[in-house]
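To whoever is covering the structure queue this week,

Two jobs came back overnight. Logging them here so there's a record in the thread.

Job A:
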Amino acid sequence: MDSLLNEEQLLLLTQATLPQWPAVARCEAILKGGSDRRFFRLHFEGEARPAIILMAYTMARPDNPRFVSATTRLETLGVRVPHIYAHDEVNLLVWLEDLGSQDLHAYREEDWSKREPLYQATLEEAAKLHSVDTSALSTDDLAEMELCFDERLYEWEQQYFLNHFVHGFLERATESVDYAAAHEALHQLRHHLAALPRGLVHRDFQSQNVLIRDAAAWLIDYQGVRPGLPEYDLASLLLDPYVDLAEAERDALLQWYAAHTERDFQTLRETYLLCAAQRLMQALGAYANLSRNLDKPHFAQHIPVAVERLLAVCAAHPMLEPLSVLITAQK
């Protein structure tokens, strides 16, 4: 079953689920990126109650129904996430705290002096996730989450990139001997990353999934939380194709995170570069799939920036250099 209820039905269910709240005066639809979920901001009569967010989800993606359990887990870790007022498992509805509409992405044109503390606040929330020793999690804990970042998942992301971006978007075949080194580099990359110790990761840690309220950062869209490498989240945020950060700004944030988490900066940066390649390939696969196959052509505008950043990352680490042949212009 999926939630395809109309607004009138949603308001009736809201009244039945939250009878202590005033009547809804206005229902405002919120457009949300590439998600298959629907979001509404419900404004109540009078000023006794603030607005709340109603999320109507589907079962089309396996991580959608995990949102509630992920919220509980993150709250336990002290991560700033929206409070859940109610959950209707039958109609696939969740009523959430309204954290406002200002995301980190909205500050992309501000001076760095204003953005830097917001990014530091964002990394501080992520560090709470990353500090979890996932090797100590129980089987039940792991069952509540999406599949961990192991070699199979890294391989799936790489194949997603090859299928949708290299083969589909670029229309490039990669079976010839010219691409043998690139395929070997992909194998080395996923094998290396899978062998490193894991924390918990957000999985889609980019500027539009961080809300800013009272100078604090609040995470959203974290239903894909799972065991993985902190550097994957760092790469997702710092190389976010939706935002332009200078290289010096990225380095400053990496330095800040290393100091905050008491990590060795050089070791962190090396793994960050490897994760950056993995994450940017996943993003390119997603942009190509969304724009070509899922009727969301506006995602194609992010492809040139993601390609440019992937090429820069490949040039910065010897393990990644052979990958550039997959995306450079053919002669």
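Job B:
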Amino acid sequence: MSIVAVAAVGLYIKSEINSRRQKAQWETSVSNLQSDNETLKERLMQCEKASEKASEEAAREIETLKIQRKRGADVMQGLVALQHTMFTDPGHIKAMFSDFFLLYKPFEAVGGDFYKLISSGDSVLVACGNCGMSGAAGLLKGLQNVAMLEDIASRCNLSEVQAGEILDALRTRYARMAERDGFRHDVDEDIPVNFTVCIINQRNRSLSYAGAYGSLCLIRKAYPGTNRREVDVHEFRGDRMNFAVSFGRRKNYTTENIELEKDDKLYLKTDGYVNQRGGSQNARYGDQYLRQLLMRHANEQMLEQRKVFEQEFENWRGNNRGNDILLIGLALKVAGK
């Protein structure tokens, strides 16, 4: 055999060996790929099952959250309805005072500020307060105060009782609760921060006022027998005594008896408005600015004043968290004037 033939045979054999080796490698690679593919399929199936399980669990959690949210919404709706039932409806207020406004804005759906108007004969009891709490807990505490106030008012003659006596009776109720429940009512969170009571008799031109950390503003522009024409604002601050019963204080609440004049206007409030922080310095709005605002808009109709006070509050608040606020304005029509 010639050298060329031998070389050709060698090359063929070498090529055949390489071909078989490559084929074996390809077969191994294909086998590995098939094995990997089976593993991937198995893992994919496991992932799909896990995903389905997770989706089912997530769906159950979502459904649970929806149910809880609905229950919470139902409870809140019930509290709002209870609030409307216990507080005095604006339509009933209008039957007592034709020109008035009610600016009641809890930060949440409900809050700790409360108010109540009760009429008996020619007298109307007007009360408002702040429990020092917000949200549902504040509302429940406020409703407790409204219920006690209604019970006390039903047991007395509003034409004869003094506003301070109403507050004395409320404090007595707190004392009884403390004795019954066996705990002390000397913690600010457990008692109303402020409470204002007025008994108004427009026919007799009389106003009886008392406050437990609660103030009253009176706008007056009529001074019979004088040449005075300017508008004045008078603020009555009441007593700095809450309804705590364990401090050993037994001083009665002070009653201010005020003779009403033509076109007097009354403003009752809780502390949320003046304590609201805002402005460029993030400062309290303050009593002084509120009095100035009352003076500037005293001659406007009450509903127009409400718009002013609400817009002023929102502008001052800015992006700060809002307080529960309550502001009541009453334009009096004194008989015989």
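Note for Job B: The chain has two domains: 1-85, 87-331.

Please reply-all if you pick these up so we don't duplicate work.
Q.
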